[in-house]
Design a protein that fits this description.
Blueprint lengths: L2 H13 L2 H12 L11 H32 L6 H25 L4 H13 L3 H14 L4 H14 L2 H14 L4 H13 L1 H8 L3 H18 L4 H9 L9 H14 L3 H18 L2 H9 L7 H24 L28 H10 L55
Helix pairs in contact: 1-2, 3-4, 3-5, 4-5, 4-17, 5-6, 6-7, 7-8, 8-9, 9-11, 10-11, 11-12, 12-13, 13-14, 14-15, 14-16, 15-16
Length: about 400
């Protein structure tokens, strides 16, 4: 989107009703945007419901954090009683949404908001039912296609996830989350992607990485997104060394603080060790000074010494041999797609679900080291991919994301 279009949108938002803004965006960018009318009584009521929803979840989160602190001191509430209070608190929010939708049965925004609430508390099937109602009422809303794709990515059929993410992208090609979600799903379910798209495995990797690059292009300052993309290379055999180093270097340029930067140094050293770039790896490790990385740094230093000794011995045994080249584009053996375990009942996991600040990814990378030294997840920049199948909340997209991508967008 050019500066003129952004200026037009800003002026329109200040002086025109939502339908006029949507029409302007259609004319300027070719993108149809459905914006709720903030003066509609139903919309005002729904906004209050959503605020109450957020307040309830914040309150429950505080209960859990406080109870964990008490438990650490030998006190605290038993899980069964805490779960009872949590479910009772959320039940009041549920009833408020249901009452609203009984009075406004054609409110697509309401079904989307209710679905988001149900998904947040672990009722994925209930959420999908509400998303489907919203989709039927407002099929041009990309957020609901994305959220349904998330559901199918977790519960199947996976091919529906491919189709629904693509639909979300078609409806709003300026939203990076949609490209990231589709790229992640293609990566994790490679067998399904091979069959659905008619690709071999390396081509599936290429498709996933291209989707990630598009997301990064749309949001170049998003550090977690940049690291997710860079981490993708760990699952590809043989390691695409140059591409991985470029991705991690780009992630380094988006780091916000020393903790994030030194976490990237750890990854850069790890890849350079595997690539035989020992001097560069040592320089990266020397730049790591934060004590939180001490264990990882020591393990990589030991690995660096071992790799250097192995390379020296190999050269001594065969001094006339050329150093082997590291291929970055060789076909690799089949790696099966990853299955997702069923979700346990909400009452059994609700406390852990909400209280855990770094929730483990729903879909982890396949176990693969590419002959890299095995590492635990470094703080700040985890080795495993984060779960990025992000539900888009039922709010209008930001103006900055409403741009038409290049014609060669994946």
């Amino acid at each position: 989107m050019n500066a003129l279009t952004i200026g037009l949108l800003s002026a329109a938002l200040a002086t025109n009703p939502p339908q006029a803004v949507s029409n302007l965006m259609q004319q300027q960018t070719g993108i149809s945007v459905s914006l709720p009318n903030p003066n509609d009584p139903a919309e005002k009521e729904l906004q209050k419901l959503m605020a109450d929803d957020d307040a309830a979840q914040a309150e429950v989160d505080k209960w859990i954090r406080d109870n964990n602190a008490f438990a650490a001191q030998g006190a605290g509430e038993v899980n069964a009683e805490l779960n009872r209070r949590i479910l009772a608190r959320f039940d009041s929010v549920r009833k408020n949404y249901e009452n609203f939708l009984r009075r406004y049965p054609d409110n697509a925004h309401g079904y989307l908001a209710y679905g988001s609430f149900l998904n947040d508390i672990g009722d994925e099937d209930g959420a999908a039912a509400q998303y489907e109602k919203s989709r039927r009422l407002d099929p041009k809303n990309p957020a609901v296609w994305n959220n349904l794709a998330n559901y199918y990515g977790e519960n199947g059929p996976i091919t529906n996830a491919f189709i629904y993410y693509a639909k979300a992208i078609a409806l709003n090609p300026g939203e990076p989350v949609y490209y990231q979600n589709l790229g992640t799903t293609v990566y994790l379910y490679r067998k399904d992607a091979r069959e659905f798209y008619g690709l071999n495995e390396q081509q599936v990797f290429d498709k996933s990485l291209a989707l990630y690059r598009k997301a990064v292009q749309l949001d170049p300052d998003d550090f977690p997104l940049a690291t997710d993309y860079a981490q993708s290379y760990y699952g590809i055999k043989p390691l695409r060394t140059n591409d991985a180093l470029i991705a991690w270097t780009n992630a380094l340029n988006t780091a916000h603080n020393d903790v994030e930067r030194e976490g990237v140094f750890i990854h850069l050293a790890r890849i350079k060790i595997a690539a035989g770039l020992f001097t560069g790896a040592r320089a990266q490790l020397n730049a790591v000074t934060n004590s939180m990385y001490n264990d990882l740094k020591k393990r990589l230093q030991r690995s660096l010494i071992q790799h250097e000794m192995a390379a020296t011995n190999a050269a001594a045994e065969n001094p006339s041999a050329n150093a082997p080249e590291i291929s970055t584009n060789v076909l690799v053996p089949k790696i099966n797609s990853i299955s997702t375990p069923a979700n346990p009942p909400v009452a059994d996991v609700l406390i852990k679900l909400i209280s855990t600040s770094n929730i483990a990814p729903t879909n982890a990378l396949p176990a693969s080291t590419n002959n890299l030294p095995a590492l635990t997840n470094p703080p700040g920049v985890p080795t495993n991919r984060a779960a990025v199948l992000t539900n888009v909340p039922p709010t209008p997209p930001k103006a900055s994301t409403l741009e038409t991508p290049p014609t060669n967008a994946p």
